[in-house]
Structures are given as structure tokens and as C-alpha cells.
Design goal:
The structure holds 2 protein chains of 2 kinds. Chain A is of the alpha/beta class. Chain A has 3 domains: 160 residues, 2-Layer Sandwich (Beta Polymerase, domain 2); 144 residues, NAD(P)-binding Rossmann-like Domain (Rossmann fold, 3-Layer(aba) Sandwich), CATH 3.40.50; 76 residues, no CATH class. Helix content of chain A is 58%, strand content 14%. Chain A contains 15 helices and 10 strands. In chain A, the strands form 2 sheets. In chain A, strands 7-6-5-8-9-10 form a 6-stranded parallel beta sheet. A 4-stranded antiparallel beta sheet of chain A has the order 2-3-1-4, sandwiched between helices. In chain A, helix 13 runs parallel beside helix 15. Chain A is elongated, with a radius of gyration of 32 Å. Chain A starts with a strand and ends in a 6-residue tail after the last helix. By secondary structure, chain B is mostly helical. Chain B has 2 domains: 99 residues; 150 residues, no CATH class. Chain B is built from 8 helices and no strands. The longest helix of chain B has 36 residues. The chains are: A alpha/beta, B mainly alpha. The interface between A and B is medium-sized, with 22 and 20 residues.
Chain lengths: 419, 271
């Protein structure tokens, strides 16, 4: 049996395609059932997230199975096969093993190092396990993928470095405030990037989000979205007294917040720290403000600088992670290979055992032995069987290159191919 | 037996410092563990040393410069363990253990023989005064160490160069908070030390204060930390200013210690 993966991700397919092929809710269960019904598929598991749809399988004939699975996907989601060609990728054997290890370790994610994917892999695996869709191969593969991901997380810094501007902003906020739960965010203007960053802060549990926009209507809309409140743009200075994080992107052509403003605000705040993020180009916050005590101002370039240095760090760490994965793939491949010889080992033993049983029966029919004598003869026969099959068994279990050849030879020598 | 337990604890404190510094250079889980274990063993031996000395002397064992600096280091480690347990602050050891080890090393160099304690000084106030004074000083020392960490981290955030120790140092909020806690603990302890010291002085010499250099320095230190607290509560002097002021306060303490121990003048001859 071999590992086969068929899938698409954020790199191979646009979101329009991904959402059409997603296995959501009941579809996932139905999909698993339909996959297992395919003649070449023995085991199956489906990972379906917003960034990827992947089907992992244990199959007998990867070539034939690939054809069948493609057909199945097109059938199941009612999409012509021709459209799938560009989006779908297929990996078998060690390439497939490497792929799932990289996915679980978040090396294949849109934001490399993001932690959610491992949870999604686990969840998908448990669902397939519940539906009894997996077997020896998938169980071992997924357990290994999870442990490899944990190893990558603890032994490398891949997960530590945020690589998007919003991530970087949140990371910085944490280094200033430690905990964001009691922090208020002020959204000054409603630019797209500021909105994204605000959403990120909200996911990290900030207390409230206040929107001050030039058109109050749009401000209200956004505030509703964030379950916050909107205030008139003109009152943003009063609002800043209570805001710990200010996201600014007003689209104004000049500075909106000046040093003197903030100086006064800081006095009223009793110098409680403020983190200002100026995402507007041209900038809306006077950069001199960073010189004030307990005020930390980052503009887009500063954040980009953080992201770049993180990315550089991360690439180094990602190489380490790839090395770990490489060695783990080898270990897994050896296990899969040893799996191949198991049927032969079993057949060999059965064959020898069968001959011995038959001969013993004939012997006992001819001679009248008492129970004790029969036992002794039986023991001797068993010892001969064991000793004779010991070395071929050991050879089969050994890690050799031409295992397939060896298996074929042993099957021929011991006549294991006939049914 | 006394001297041996001291030497062993000195050696283990050295290892603790070594592991703490190694932890700075490379992030692993082993170094902080080894650092804590070494510090703990050193602390154990030093505790035995202090009790042994105490019993053989019949009074508190910090009445010469050797014992005083050693006890100072002991108090710092005590607070260090409490902070580690309470806050689990990354890299704290790297900033604290060198300071404590240095004190131990100075103590090691100082002569340990004792001049007999003059009868006027034999009083239960001796114990109260010195224990409170050293606990307070240890709290201030820690506040300075944490304040220094704050300045380092704040420099990273302000300058927008986030390499080095940035990701491993705690957040500014946590460092500021710990600094504040340490000063609020240290200040009342120091106040008790000053009050008990003047009662003791009154008992021994008949006046609460005799304006000897040590006493003046103590008042200066008390004033500095009083300002740290007052300015924070009234005017929001937090973060950088609080950190810098607590370092200044600690330098005052060290200056007083070093200067007066060398001069050997005044009524605090032993300190």
C-alpha cells in the first residue's frame, strides 16, 4: 500500500475554486464514504480548510487511484475534470509523506508558522478515525505528522516570527502591554489595512474598538462590524485619552496628530503607554511623537522592517525545519517499506506451519503415540519450522534496497504465490 | 565547616551566573533549569553557613563587611526565587545572578574574622534593623536589575530594531509592574529599618540620629525611593523614568556601602 495525496491550496487555486471544492459539514462524511468505495482506495482522510483541500489516501496502485480520485472530485463537486487540472496536485510515496509533514508543521501555510493548521490536521484525522476511514498506514502517517509538527515547533523558531504587518503589530502590542484584554483600540480613519489590523487585534481579545471616521456613516458600519462604537472624527483627541492602541489611516494628505496634542493627552493619561500605528501614506502622525516618553509610534515602513527581519529569521528557521522533516520522511519510508514485506512474512509462516501440521497429522495416524509423546514430536516439528523460516523472515524485515526483488524471490522459492 | 559551606555556595553561585549568561547567548530549555538548580544549591549551602555562624556567635551573623555583603547576596537570591516562582520572567537570572555573585565574591575577599561586638550594640534591635535593611536593599537591587531590563527592552521598541533579546525579554508592562512592586515592598521595609535603627541608636547612645555619614546616606536613599513612589502615583512617572530612578537609588546604596566600608568611620564601623 502506498500514500497518495490529491489536493489544492492557496498557491495552486484561487479562493473561488477552493470554496467550490471544500468538503464542509456533511459533505466531508459523504466524501469519505465515496472515496473508500473506490476500488483502489483502502484508507482515506480529508483536510478541508479555507486555504487548502487535501485528500490523503492509502492506495494499492497510485497511477490508477490518481485517475479515480480525480474523477471522484469532479463528480462529487460537479466540476468538469478539465478545470481541475490546473488546481490539483498529486504526490505519492515520500513526496506525499513530506507534503503532509510540511503542511502539519505550517511550512506550507499562507502565513508560515501560523499555529491553526496543526489543530485542523488533528481534527480532520480524528473525524476520519471516527468514521473508521483510516487504517494502519494513515494512522501512523497522521500521528507521525503531528509529532513532527510538534518537533518543528519546539526545535525551530518557525512559529515565533510573525510575517504580516498585522501580525507584527499585534506582536509589538504584546511586547508593550503584555496582555491585550483590557486595552482599547481607536481606529482613526477606516483604511483597509487598518481594518485588517483592527480585526487582528480583536481576535487577540482587546476590550473595545472605537472608530472615528470622517464620514460617520462608514464609521458606524465598521463599529457595528467590530461590536464597538463610532464617534465623530472631530472628537478623536478626547477619545485618545482612553485609547491604548491607535490605528491611523485617514487618507489625509498631511499630519493629523501632532506632538503637542499627544503631549497633552499623555498628561491626562497619567503617562500610561500608547502604541500608535500609522498605516497611512503619506503619514498622518508626526514622527516626532516617537520621542515622547511612553509613546511608541510605528509607521508602515517600520512595521515592514519588522516583518522583513522576521522573514529573514524565519527563512533560516524554515531551513532547519525542512532538515528535520527530511530525516523524519526517511524514517517513515523505512517503516512503510517494512510494511510491504509483512504479508510475505505471514504467508511464509502459514506455509511452513501448514506443512508441519499436515505431516504431523499423517504421522499421528500411522503411529499410536500417547499424549506425552505427541507433545514432544509437536515441539520438535515447531522448532524445525521456526529455525527454517527464521533467516528468510529476518531478511524480509531487514532494511534492504531491493526489497521488492527479495520479496518476489522468497515468494517464488517457497511457492507463496498460489492461492 | 563554616568556611567550606561558604566556598561551596560561592562556587554554585558562579555556575548559576555562568548558565544565566549562556542562556543569554542561546535560547534553550536547559540553561535556565541548570541556572535555577545551581542557584538553589548555592542558596542552600549559604543558608547553612549563615545559621552556623549565627549559632556560634550568639547573635545575628552580619556584623562585619564580609557577613553583611554575603547576607545581602542571600537576600537577593531569596527575592529572585520568589520572582521566578511568581512571574517566571525570561532572562531575569542573567541580570540578577551576576550582581549577587559579585557581592558574594566581594564578601569572599573581605576578612571574615570578627571583632567582639561592643556591649552597647548588643540589643534585639540589631537583628530587626539589619534584617529589614538588607531585605529592603535586596528589593531595591532587584528593582534596579529589572529597571535595567526595562531600559534594554524599551530601547529595542523605541529604536524599532527588534533583534537581539527583544523576543525573549518580557513585555514593558510586566517589567514596569515588577519594578513598581519591588519598590513598594522595599520602601516600607527600608522605613522599618530606619526607624528600628534610630530606636536602637537611642538605646545605645541616647539620641535617635547622630548625623554620621551612613545615616545620612540612608536618608538620601530613602528620599530617592520615596520620590520614585510619589512621582509614580501622583505624576505618572512610570516606565523609563521609574526604571532610571530605581537604578540611581540602587547606585546610591552601593556607593554608600562601598565608600563607608572602606572608610570604616562613624558608628556603622562594621558596614
Amino acid at each position: 500500500m502506498k500514500v497518495l495525496v490529491a489536493g489544492l491550496n492557496h498557491k495552486s487555486a484561487d479562493v473561488e475554486v477552493r470554496e467550490k471544492l471544500a468538503f464542509t459539514g456533511e459533505k466531508l462524511e459523504q466524501g469519505l464514504g465515496a472515496l473508500l468505495a473506490l476500488p483502489h482506495v483502502r484508507e482515506a482522510m480529508i483536510i478541508s480548510t479555507c486555504n487548502r483541500v487535501e485528500i490523503y489516501m492509502g492506495v494499492e496502485d497510485p497511477g490508477e487511484a490518481t485517475r479515480q480520485v480525480k474523477h471522484f472530485i469532479s463528480d462529487f463537486h460537479s466540476i468538469p475534470e478539465g478545470l481541475l487540472d490546473k488546481a490539483l496536485y498529486f504526490h505519492t510515496d515520500s513526496a506525499a509523506v513530506r507534503h503532509i509533514f510540511r503542511v502539519a508543521s505550517s511550512l506550507d501555510s499562507m502565513v508560515v508558522g501560523e499555529p491553526q493548521i496543526l489543530g485542523q490536521v488533528k481534527e480532520s484525522f480524528h473525524l476520519a478515525l471516527d468514521k473508521k476511514a483510516t487504517g494502519v498506514l494513515m494512522n501512523k502517517l497522521m500521528k507521525k505528522a503531528i509529532s513532527v509538527a510538534k518537533r518543528v515547533r519546539t526545535e525551530t523558531g518557525v512559529a515565533e516570527n510573525a510575517v504580516s504587518i498585522s501580525f507584527a503589530a499585534v506582536e509589538l502590542a504584546r511586547k508593550i502591554f503584555n496582555d491585550l484584554v483590557d486595552k482599547s483600540v481607536l481606529l482613526l480613519g477606516a483604511g483597509e489595512m487598518a481594518e485588517l489590523a483592527a480585526r487582528h487585534l480583536m481576535n487577540n481579545g482587546v476590550k473595545e474598538i472605537v472608530v472615528a471616521n470622517r464620514t460617520l456613516e462608514r464609521g458606524c458600519e465598521l463599529a457595528q462590524d467590530f461590536k464597538g462604537r463610532a464617534v465623530p472624527f472631530s472628537s478623536f483627541k478626547e477619545e485618545m485619552v482612553h485609547s491604548d492602541i491607535v490605528l491611523c489611516s485617514t487618507g489625509a494628505p498631511n499630519y493629523v496628530v501632532f506632538k503637542q496634542d499627544l503631549h497633552n493627552i499623555m498628561k491626562e493619561r497619567k503617562q500610561r503607554p500608547v502604541f500608535l500605528i500609522d498605516i497611512s501614506v503619506p503619514r498622518n502622525i508626526d514622527p516626532k511623537i516617537n520621542g515622547l516618553e511612553n509613546v511608541y509610534l510605528y509607521d508602515v515602513d517600520d512595521l515592514q522592517g519588522v516583518v522583513d527581519s522576521n522573514r529573514h529569521e524565519r527563512n533560516k528557521e524554515a531551513q532547519k525545519a525542512e532538515d528535520i522533516i527530511g530525516s523524519e520522511v526517511e524514517v517513515f519510508e523505512r517503516w512503510v517499506a517494512s510494511l510491504q514485506s509483512i504479508p510475505t512474512v505471514v504467508a511464509l509462516r502459514q506455509r511452513a506451519q501448514g506443512i508441519s501440521e499436515a505431516e504431523l497429522e499423517r504421522l499421528f495416524n500411522r503411529l499410536s503415540l500417547d499424549e506425552k509423546q505427541q507433545g514432544a514430536v509437536r515441539q520438535m516439528a515447531q522448532a524445525i519450522v521456526n529455525k527454517l523460516i527464521h533467516s528468510p523472515t529476518a531478511a524480509l524485515k531487514e532494511d534492504v534496497e531491493d526489497r521488492d526483488q527479495l520479496i518476489a524471490m522468497i515468494r517464488k522459492l517457497y511457492d507463496l504465490n498460489g492461492d | 565547616m563554616g568556611a567550606i559551606t561558604f566556598d561551596i555556595s560561592l562556587a554554585f553561585y558562579f555556575f548559576a551566573m555562568l548558565f544565566a549568561v549562556l542562556d543569554l547567548s542561546k535560547s534553550t530549555k536547559t540553561f535556565p533549569k541548570l541556572m535555577l538548580i545551581s542557584a538553589f544549591i548555592g542558596f542552600g549551602f549559604q543558608t547553612v553557613y549563615i545559621f552556623y555562624e549565627g549559632f556560634s556567635l550568639g547573635h545575628v551573623p552580619f556584623v562585619n563587611p564580609h557577613e553583611a555583603t554575603s547576607f545581602f547576596a542571600w537576600c537577593i537570591f531569596l527575592l529572585f526565587f520568589i520572582l521566578e516562582y511568581r512571574y517566571k520572567v525570561g532572562l531575569l537570572g542573567a541580570f540578577i545572578t551576576p550582581m549577587a555573585f559579585l557581592l558574594m565574591f566581594v564578601s569572599f575577599l573581605l576578612p571574615s574574622e570578627l571583632k567582639p561586638l561592643s556591649p552597647v550594640l548588643r540589643s534585639q534591635w540589631l537583628g530587626v534593623h539589619t534584617v529589614f535593611a538588607f531585605l529592603a536593599n535586596a528589593a531595591f537591587a532587584m528593582a534596579a536589575g529589572v529597571g535595567f531590563m526595562y531600559l534594554v527592552q524599551e530601547h529595542y521598541v523605541k529604536s524599532k530594531r527588534l533583534g537581539g533579546l527583544f523576543s525573549r525579554l518580557p513585555s514593558l508592562h510586566v517589567l514596569d509592574e515588577i519594578n513598581y512592586r519591588l519598590v513598594t515592598v522595599g520602601f516600607p521595609l527600608f522605613t522599618v529599618a530606619i526607624i528600628s535603627g534610630s530606636i536602637w541608636a537611642d538605646n545605645a547612645w541616647g539620641s535617635y540620629i547622630s548625623w554620621d555619614p551612613r545615616q545620612i546616606w540612608a536618608l538620601v536613599t530613602w528620599l530617592i525611593f520615596g520620590i520614585v513612589l510619589h512621582a509614580r502615583l501622583q505624576r505618572g512617572w512610570r516606565g523609563k523614568r521609574a526604571a532610571a530612578l530605581s537604578i540611581l537609588g540602587f547606585l546610591t546604596i552601593i556607593g554608600a556601602f562601598a565608600g563607608l566600608a572602606l572608610l570604616q568611620k562613624g558608628q556603622h564601623v562594621f558596614l
